[in-house]
Write a structure and sequence with these properties.
Chain lengths: 335, 335
Amino acid sequence: MHTRRGLVLVFICAALLAWQGRALAEGQGDPLPSWNDGAIKQSIIDFVTRVTKEGGPDYVKPEERIATFDNDGTLWVEQPIYTQFAFAIDEVKAKASKHPDWKTKEPFKFVLAGDMKAIATMGEKGMVEIVAATHSGMTTVDFNKTVSHWLETAKHPRFKVLYTDLVYQPMLELLAYLRANHFKTFIVSGGGVEFMRNFTDKTYGIPPEQVIGSSGVTQFQMWDASPVLVKLPKVLFVDDGPGKAEGINHFIGRQPIFAFGNSDGDKEMLEWTAGCQRLCFMGLVHHTDAVREYAYGPDSKVGTFSNALLEEATGKGWAVVSMKDDWKVIFPPQK
Amino acid sequence: MHTRRGLVLVFICAALLAWQGRALAEGQGDPLPSWNDGAIKQSIIDFVTRVTKEGGPDYVKPEERIATFDNDGTLWVEQPIYTQFAFAIDEVKAKASKHPDWKTKEPFKFVLAGDMKAIATMGEKGMVEIVAATHSGMTTVDFNKTVSHWLETAKHPRFKVLYTDLVYQPMLELLAYLRANHFKTFIVSGGGVEFMRNFTDKTYGIPPEQVIGSSGVTQFQMWDASPVLVKLPKVLFVDDGPGKAEGINHFIGRQPIFAFGNSDGDKEMLEWTAGCQRLCFMGLVHHTDAVREYAYGPDSKVGTFSNALLEEATGKGWAVVSMKDDWKVIFPPQK
């Protein structure tokens, strides 16, 4: 009796929802209101329409609708320096009193003196040392507390708002549009996975288990009969360049059919997606708007978008979004 | 107009489904029919009831209901040797004609001579060499083809059926019961992640992106303008022992509230889960049934379940399932 009642209810609901679903699919409402009408917006909508059309030649089952997004410069601002590096610099300053040797030791002395040019000159070596010193030697729980507090208080030097307010409204709409069409959205970033997991759920609606990033080695220990994971100053995985394709395989185990990046570090993720053997979508955000955000490309050290990548994207028909021309607004309305 | 109609429909359906949901929750049907009534079965049902009771003191939001399961010996048979090792041995035999040197080279000559005792004597070193030789030097796509074909044809030496037929029916019911209660179920295994992903979806209903395991390094390459990932003979991550707690943090980024294992390699996963700071459930399958499956414990090289772990589990109130006493049936009915 109960089982039959259940079946009848499920049937009624399925019929009602299908009817409503058709009405929605017939197109009330713009799913991407912050995107200007044009070829890029149309290509996104066309792609989603085709892969979700049951019985159509390009139909993809919901569980195979994997979409991967770079984070820095694709979902939020990455200038003038990567947000995670801004955090690391603030942490060096906050921890300086416990490390008197830093006053005379490179690269820390440059940070404490506010000499960003000297840090930039040191290149990757200096950055790695600063990140290692501020991202290891504590438990994962303590690290998360520090990051959360910083994200709730630190302000961007130009826009004077929280970093999490500097996410791109058009990309939030794109994430929501894909999820409404039963895509599973992932972040695949060169940034630290544990840093990102402190804001991705709240900011993008992407849960921790769908965040892929670079990571350090952790070590399981028992402290007073309580388990902890201690962060060690040792790299486990670099999720950048070819590492993005490798990371997608390692963490997801499926090939995406949709991927979005903004720089040379995303090239292999896009190439890997393009090899999906069916209809797939590859996109790049091009930072062309110095007034509302930033304009940069091949010469930028942060988020380098080389001419070679631009040529590859154009040649292969990947969508290159011009921030200036394709986006009506950049950031969400201030709360 | 359309929006209002949509809201009304969603409301009607929500009400109907809530009504039906309550009827189901009131308990028609046994969610774990292959489990004998007793303390273990009751403790599972009590736990699920408490963490899903909205407004109750132990309520856990659906997105935080993370459940992790070991694979070998917890979800399927691991005797007389790990299934993945059986695959590797068959692969050595299949590839021998291309490697004439194997006839005289340890450990391959033992495999080709069928001398399992000699392989066992070599211990981990021999096993690692055999796995490296059979799990690298090809693309991920080719590896998956080989594994899939093997899984569709190779038979277990004692039970004479496919390895994927030797999954535990009571655990399939447990996975389904948890998912029906909005748990997200993950595998956290010492086995190779790429090996497992060839059957976990079909066999357990666990999609590739929810499978965590040991892994080798892969390398992105372009072959004739097509992207491939080549498997290298180099370990990236060992998901065993403390590595299980580290892997859970690395891949999921949330602490489970439910975990099941069967051997010393699961100790730290269970300890990490036990540190979840709220109601959580830790379980171990104890292989006590030589007639229907196998009976083994501290002296087994495969799936060692030491007395120390048994004492820890008993002392901490973890559920220790006796296969002989707690399970009505072991395997699903044969098709």
